[in-house]
Amino acid sequence: MLRIECPCCGPRDHDEFRYGGDASVTRPAHDDPDPEAWYRYVYVRTNPAGLHREFWQHVTGCRQWLVVERDTRNHAIASVDLARKLSARKLPARKSPA
Amino acid sequence: MARYSAFSIFRNALSGQKNWQRAWRAAEPKPSYDVIVIGGGGHGLATAFYLAENHGIRNVAVLEKAYIGGGNVGRNTTVIRSNYLLDGNTQFYEFSMKLWEGMSGALNFNVMFSQRGQLVTAHSADQLDGFSHRANIMRLNGIDADILDRDEVRRLVPYLDFSDTARFPIHGAIFQGRAGTARHDAVAWGYARAADGHGVDIIQNCEVTGFLRDGDRIVGVETTKGRIGAGKVGLSVAGHTSVLGAKAGLELPIESHVLQAFVTEPLKPLVDHVVAYGADHFYVSQSDKGGLVFGGNLDGYNSYAQRGNLGVVREVAEAAIALMPCISRVRLLRHWGGVMDMTPDASPIICPTPIEGLFLNGGWCYGGFKATPASGWCFAHTIATGKPHPLIAAYGLDRFRTGHTLDEAGAGPSAWLQ
Q1: Among B58, B1, B49, which Cα is nearest to B197's?
Q2: B205, B220 in Cβ contact below 8 A?
Q3: How much is the average pLDDT of B28-57?
Q4: What ipTM was estimated for this complex?
Q5: How many domains does chain A have?
Q6: How many Cβ atoms from other residues are within 10 Å of residue B169's Cβ?
């Protein structure tokens, strides 16, 4: 069994989590008219044999979405972090409404 | 290549069965070939055989990173059926079924194809309506299909749970009498031997590490046994298509997942057919040795490990006992895993690629074994002529871009499990 070190709940069996797939794909801007960008977002996956960044949600625990780096060949987990913490870093600071 | 026959067994008996030839040569790579097929699984070996048999292309090598039959061709649950609903799939899998019916003769190798019949149980009136739709489509395509009511199912497979306490009562089933199983190792060995008989080099322990290019064109491969030139290269490595595709510069709509299979201790004859559970993901047949061979769903996350996790063992066991309470005390002998190429619409990809000289056969999800002969036949045609065989016209890589997905899984085109 995989054991995922949840930042909120500690080490937990992966049966408590729901898998959310590849966390490295980025969604095109909402108004992006380029079908190629949407094709890549929806379908294309790098699918590496090695380190893979992926989403897991702790559904029977704290219900947080996590980003886990796991080796797809032997399931060794290199890092676990809260998805919202990582996405907050990527997003530009929100302007307060005028 | 010496022909196998009753007479050859008798003749070899006179010398104590000690003078049998190798079934295929242990070939070492030549500097170049007309066609290199990467992957010595069922599909790759079948492709090489049909390249030689149907198209007269005999200067062919099959490169296998480990040994013949050690990958998914030897890891599946050996079920063969052609009960597909969607145009494109229906005809392709029925063509495959017809090739299965003549395979042992065509290869001069007994693949132990056993048309014992396959049924899928229905657990509601609506599900049975859906099966009737499927059966009608099959019959319109000249494929045998029958709809059974509850009593008919009970007469055929009385060991299923027909009690009042069944969680999902059986309403009926869809039945295909020509479906069945084959010995999967024999399929790999039979194609290997027959291809070798046509002069194909089967090179084991030869892993492809990169591609040789001349401009945009692929002109050969780098391997652990050195560089090998090729007029054309066919990729037939389902499970690892993304890994080799990336080396060639292909971006693919594929995720690799592990699917487990199981076998129990040997029992006396119990399961005479292939039985699939319509209320969950579970399918079972009984091997000639008596073990119940069964499988279930994917492990559920990207994986290249050829072994699975215990959570799925429990889920599959639960499904097994819900359908067949009589096996609750049977002991599991072994379970193992294979790596599947999962495509977003659960249909395969066989086509020429945007890269000149490179052809792709992959994305078999967990249904590749039954397709082995047709896949080899059509892929050989595609490599030989440069154009997709009409039977695989729906399996192009472009279908995801253009929206022509072939959603046989009924789950809607989606990246897996998200």
Answers
A1: B1
A2: no
A3: 98
A4: 0.90
A5: 1
A6: 15
A75 chain-B contacts, CB cut-off 8 A? 303, 305
Strands A3-6 and A10-13: antiparallel
- B233, burial (CB in 10 Å: exposed 0-12, middle 13-18, buried 19+): buried
What global pTM score does this model have?
0.95
Task: State which amino acid sits at residue B78.
Answer: T
pLDDT digits (tens, 9 = 90+) for A31-84: 999 999 999 999 999 999 999 999 999 999 999 999 999 999 999 999 999 999
Whether residue A76 lies inside any domain: the answer is yes
Residue ranges of chain B assigned to CATH 3.30.9.10:
118-176, 256-342
Q: Which of B26, B196, B40, B22 is nearest to B107 (CA)?
A: B196
- List of chain A residues whose C-beta atoms are within 8 Å of the C-beta of residue B311: 1, 14-15
Q: Are the beta carbons of A43 and B255 separated by less than 8 Å?
A: no
Rounded Cα distance, B297 and B312, in Å: 7
Give residue B366's pLDDT band: very low, low, confident or very high (50, 70, 90).
confident
At residue A94, the pLDDT reads: 54
Q: What is the 3-class SS of B129-156, one letter each residue?
A: HHHHHHHHHHHHCCCCCEEEEHHHHHHH
Q: Say which CATH number the domain at A17 has.
A: 3.30.2270.10
Closest chain A C-alpha to B33 CA, distance in angstroms = 29
A13 assigned to some structural domain: yes
Beta strands B60-63 and B201-203, pairing class: parallel
Residue range B143-155: mean pLDDT, rounded: 98
- The residue segments making up the domain with residue A66 are 3-90
Local confidence band at A89 (pLDDT 50, 70, 90 cut-offs): low
Q: What is the pLDDT of residue B409?
A: 76
- Distance of alpha carbon A12 from alpha carbon A7, whole angstroms: 10
The angle at the Cα of B241, spanning B240 to B244, to the nearest 5 degrees, equals: 90
Is A48 near chain B, with CB under 8 Å? yes
> What's the burial of B329, exposed, middle or buried (CB within 10 Å: 0-12/13-18/19+)?
exposed
Q: Which of B287, B262, B284, B93 is nearest to B185 (CA)?
A: B287
At residue B320, the pLDDT reads 97
Question: Token pair 């145009």 is at which residue?
Answer: B87
The two structure tokens encoding residue B11: 């003749």
Report CB contact under 8 Å: B417, A1. no
First to last CA, chain A: 51
Task: Tell me what pLDDT residue A87 has.
Answer: 75
